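Page 47, continued from p. 46.
Same chain as before, 280 aa.
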Amino acid sequence: MKTASPHCGAWLQRQDGGSTRNLVKLTKRMRFDLITIFPEFFAGPLDHGILRRARETGLVEVNVQDLRAFTKDRHRTVDDRPFGGGEGMVLKPEPLFEAVESLLGRGVGEAAKPGAGDPNSAIVLMSAAGKLFRQETARRYAQLEHIIFICGRYEGVDERVAEHLATDEISIGDFVLSGGELPAMMVVDAVTRLLPGALGNEASSQNESFSAVADDRTGSSQPLQRCRQSLLDFPHYTRPAEYRGWSVPEILIGGNHAEVAKWRRAAAVEKTRRNRPDLI
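Result:
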């Protein structure tokens, strides 16, 4: 696994005339590996916005792995019929285990001899049957160094992959898609924007839906895990102050920051109650 430096997260310093100056803060590089039978799917999503900038600056490394490259038969077979009968085809365990072990540079074990995991990496199976992906999951993933995504297809993936290979089985919602490629890209985007240096303004990731709740008394932000409510972001407005007879709330134009903070808190609660009452 490639990393930016053994001193990731430390300050790079130099001695100049007996004095020490901080030059630049090094950040660890996040590596994403995407295992798929449709590698061409990722040609577009990786080349735009925050993710593109993060790749260009070396903050993240993204590799797309063709699952068929890890097959051993001349037909490059990745799927087979399900035991017990039923519709559709199921992705086979052999190429998926081979692909992940190749990327990890080590074996993951077997029933008689289970392998040890790596606390700095995750193997994520994207599946409609997985646990729901939330912002707190993205924050946890942002602390890692390496994430391998297994993009399912067809009727599903052999359950031994979910039980004995993947560290996480993740769903992005209560609906079914044709495959795990699009959900994997959504997770990659959500994690990348939380990495230090990915956004132009670090506060952008702290003051948005699911990320922070403003304290009524101080106007300060606290991490969600320390708060009793998970609120959606407050409404935003920009120029013109009046458009087609609809005006921006007067309090946002007055310049009283304490009152603005109070209004935003109340507006966030109201929007959450209206759109996501389950969060209140």
